[in-house]
Amino acid sequence: MTSTVRLDFKSSLKSLLANESDSLAINELSVSEIQQIADALKLNTSLKTLDMGYTKENDTEEEEIMNSSPLGVKGAEYIGRAIMVNSTLNKLGASHNEIRDEGAQQLAEALMVNSELTALDLESNNISEIGAKHIAKAMKANTSIVCLNLSNNLMSDRGAEYIFAGLRKNKSNSLVELNLSQNIIGEVGAEYIGAALKSNDTLRVLKMSDNEVLAAGAGHLAEALEVNNSIVTLELGNNNIGDDGATYMADALNVNNTIINLDLSRNNVGDIGGNHLAEALKVNKTLGWLNLCKNGITNDGAKHFIQALKENTSLIVLDLHKNEIISGNVLASKEAELKKNFKRNQEEFLDALNGHKAAPWNRSRISIVGKGSAGKTATVRSLLGETFNPYRDSTIGVSISECLATNKTTNWKSKSNPWTKTTLNGDGSGDYTNEYAYRFATRIMLNIPNTREESLAVEGIENVDELKKQSLSKLASVPEIVRKISKKFSPGKVIPSPLPADDEKQFVREFNEKLVVKAKKDAESLALSVWDFGGQKVFYPMHHLFFTRYGTYAVVFDIRELLDIDKKMDALSYLSFWLQSIKLHAPTAPVLLVGNFAAEVNDERKSITQIDSILREELVKDKFPQLVLNDDEEEELIYFPIDNKEYLGIEKLRMKIENAVRHDASVFEEVPVRWMILLDQILSKRKESNYISLSTINKMANSIGIRKAQEIEDALRLFHERGMMIHLQATEALKDYVVLRPQWLCDGLSKIIRDRDLHKFSANEFEAAGLKEDLQMTFKNALSTQQYMEYVWNGEHVDFFLDFMRRTMLLSDWNFLSEHYFLVPSLLVERFPEANHHGLKCVFDFSNHFLPIGVFQRLISLCSAYRSQNKGDSNVRKSGIPILCENAISMELKPGFKIRLHKSEEKQSIIMYVEDYQQAPKSLFVILSMLGKVSHNAMGNGLSWETRLEDPDSGELVGYREAREKLMSPWFDIKNVQKTAVLDAELKTFLKSID
């Protein structure tokens, strides 16, 4: 994240309207200016952080003082309306703005709709229990807020009760940090909070300083800490808890093994309370920071802490300044003991960071696919706990969301919590410097347990070890790249440390309670990269690039279509395509069939059973053993009926997806910390570029001790499989690209490959740009000009996108009659009748396997590239004008060498027609080589087909092997059929090898 820029009104408005910044600070505005900023925010798509905290300094210009003001109620109303619409803002600061209860209500109503905001600061706004009630109501529905600052308001005990009642009923349990400092909360409010904390296991940081909870209130909170295992930081400074309150806290520390940072400063704690805390430190092994400054602890009390520190190994900060008189010698002894702990912790942290240790990543990828309008995007929103939106636009290309699924909060048979939307590194900071590596090292250093066994045990699986053995036996369970880590890359020299061992200040800065919070959250959550694939056919050739071998897939279909006799076969055809495509790329990945619109069918129970029979008998049979069964019904179903509008079946679907992820042992396999160091270094480059070269990554890897090319390749493959970046490895040329922002690449490709009806560009806009004919030709003939490409990509990274699309066979150069275009086969829609083809036939028969959409389009692209390389169509009068159709091509690849191909969807075949028998051997070799190239580069080497050649004498089709053995003429008349194509070579080399 770039640093927040503070601008005046005009500059801020300009920046918002132009999408120039991701972080702004704005204040000292008039009401009308606030309204204009809010209106601009509705349209803005770049801003992530907006700080409107009112920090007005003394001005000398009287007019400026009169015209500017805090947000107030009206400003809060404007901003609330804006964030109801805005879909990119993550953090909103509105402190010291006098929004009061009415303004709090406006923002609260916005939070019930908004699902992007993760941090909200409402400090010092005169919000009472009335405003707290509105905020609490919002928290019941909101699924995204992670950090909420309500400090220095007027909420009182009743307000605290409202807030925690709201959190108890929150669907997503997303809140991690809550600040209720300085809110007139007493022991009654503390009792409400304590009761809520006993059942809350997601809140990590609770700040309650400068209230009046007293000893009794501290007792309620301490009682909660004895059973709560999520609170890492508790701030209770200046609450007058006294010795009794400190004793209660000491009792909690004897039991609690989670809390890391405890602030009991300014609390009238004397030696009695201090001694109890000191004794607790002898038992507690997790507390790292204890603040007891400005209390009544004397020299004797301090000595008790020194004795405790001789046994304690975790405490690194004990603040005793401004207590009763404590001698310099005692303070020095205390610091000496803390220094030992500090050094020990530092060494363990650095050892974990710089050694060859590992920890589970707990990360996977969910791919949501299906026919257009089946409700995929609505399903993703439901899984994230977002409200149903019937006006949501159709997905263009691919839409990627990052989210967390909490392992701990659910008994998976009753209720599942919505996944919490997050950013790539999990906390929204955007700062990737050592983010993953530090968290991995912290988990190892503190031995934070992974909760996979706990979550599986809750499901009722008794023998976790046996489950592990079963999972490990499956190919999908442990990817080769992870399984061989420990054996393949044994420890060698220690990796040069990115965190100098003698840099104590950096250790203190990096290793703190916030890092522990993140590390603990990592251990207790599943990080999910959710890919929502556009359902229109035009996108299918592109989708093959982004299917991964591992992860979990969900195929969404419209349940109504299987009950409609006119739509049933088409619906089954789409389902078959998706299931076969997934099997092609991920043969052992778990797949869930999801039937949407279940609430809209008549006689729901009967229809659900009828659809199950249709799917079993006419689609699945025994061909897809990786399907996840819906076995919680009275009778087992092969699919999951849901309805997004009615929220029907969503919790069960979410639960089953999470369970599928948890049963994938690869998700919990340990990944080396050094790989995370490499990941952090790679992601840090996102600030500068959307992609980097492999050579740059090799230098990064070498600098941290990863020197084997195979290990670097395996690490990048893992990052790709988990949805962190795009790194295709089919050819050396493709390997050289590492795309750091997958969504950026998907969006770029979708500027070219898009549905002409659903996702059409504005004709007026292109006419104004002088590109009206270019637009028409692109969607009519699938031919684009250089000017068109530059316009849709805004002149940015044009060469990169063109090169990438060439290498992935989504595009090829097209030269015709001295004109240069780009051919995009996915945009071809015109169909050519098979009866119009003539010549000797060669049939590439996929009917026993699967002919994916995208194969024929790539054949067209390769033929076009071959043709451009060899200057085909040198004599148009002789060769004829090329035919380019969705299902057929006819073109001269080089002077005298012509190819005719026809795709039959019904027969699941590609048929080649040869009129010039002398060209039969070369035609066969070229197309077989091209099919091999498509399979290797884009289909995961998963294509299978039978080749049958027509015998010109009998007219019968003869199998390839038989025809070759008897050198059947004309297919095997010349020796050049013995040539070998270089399938893993870059495009030009490949084309040269088959020429």
From TrEMBL:
Gene3D superfamilies: P-loop containing nucleotide triphosphate hydrolases (3.40.50.300), Ribonuclease Inhibitor (3.80.10.10), Winged helix-like DNA-binding domain superfamily/Winged helix DNA-binding domain (1.10.10.10). PROSITE patterns: ROC. It holds the Pfam family LRR_6. Its EC number is 2.7.11.1. Residues 357-664 form the Roc domain. The keyword Signal does not apply. InterPro entries: COR-A, Leu-rich_rpt, LRR-containing_regulator, LRR_dom_sf, P-loop_NTPase, ROC, WH-like_DNA-bd_sf. It is an enzyme of class 2 (transferase). It catalyses: L-threonyl-[protein] + ATP = O-phospho-L-threonyl-[protein] + ADP + H(+); L-seryl-[protein] + ATP = O-phospho-L-seryl-[protein] + ADP + H(+). Keywords: ATP-binding, Kinase, Nucleotide-binding, Repeat, Serine/threonine-protein kinase, Transferase. One of its GO terms (molecular function) is protein serine/threonine kinase activity. This is non-specific serine/threonine protein kinase. It comes from Aplanochytrium stocchinoi.
